[in-house]
Amino acid sequence: MRYSIVLFNIILTFSYGIQLHISPDRNISIQQEDIDALKYFTKEKYRFIMNNEGAKKIVKENRILANAYIKEGLLTPFQQKVLLIETEKNLADQYVKHLQQTVQIPEKVLKSYYFDNLEKFKELPQVKLMRYRFKTYKDAIAFYMKKRKNIKFNKMKESWKSLNKIKEPYRSIFLVTKKGQYTPVFVVGKDKFDIFYIEDKKEGKGYLPFEKVKKDIAKFLYAKTFNRARAKVLEQYE
Fold this sequence. Notes:
Blueprint: E1 9-13, E2 17-21, H1 32-46, H2 52-71, H3 77-101, H4 107-116, E3 126-134, H5 137-144, E4 154-162, H6 170-176, E5 186-189, E6 192-202, H7 210-224, H8 226-235
Antiparallel strand pairs: 1-2, 3-4, 3-6, 5-6
């Protein structure tokens, strides 16, 4: 996360390693790269996709508040060390992942995992949804508790969706919610709270084709062998 040009200034040196210098921003501004970075972060971390307008608003708010925190001298030297450790860990993890992906996993290994774990690739049910969006958590909870008079919401009908293509935690909730029932409240973002109604449901047929899941299998195998790959890389520097 970059609050400004100088707010997170990571200085790479060969003699002293990574140093983290943090100082207030003189002129807070938002670039498209910041918006794209936040959208990527929320997609990877929380499994939902933000629009540009919402992402820009959150980036600006966070930047203003973070800048104020630093200007008031509330960031201690110890906290700066914690941020440095977090940065180093992130860079270290990214480096190992990069090296892992320079060596492709043979397709026969991917296929072997696929057929050995075929039950993991069963076609999940499809669901037909109705989305109810609320501006306050209080209204969403009242609606869920069947107190639905004088509550404002936006109602959006959605097409059939396969649960295999829906990310967690939505997938698990939709899987256990029966036809004709409402899901609990999902906190989507600021002033955005969703409840879904399961209009219809139909069982999946067969298994997902290998070609559709081989990238996911590779990602899983890279993650599974991450610690081993990390240790192997470190051997070169000892």
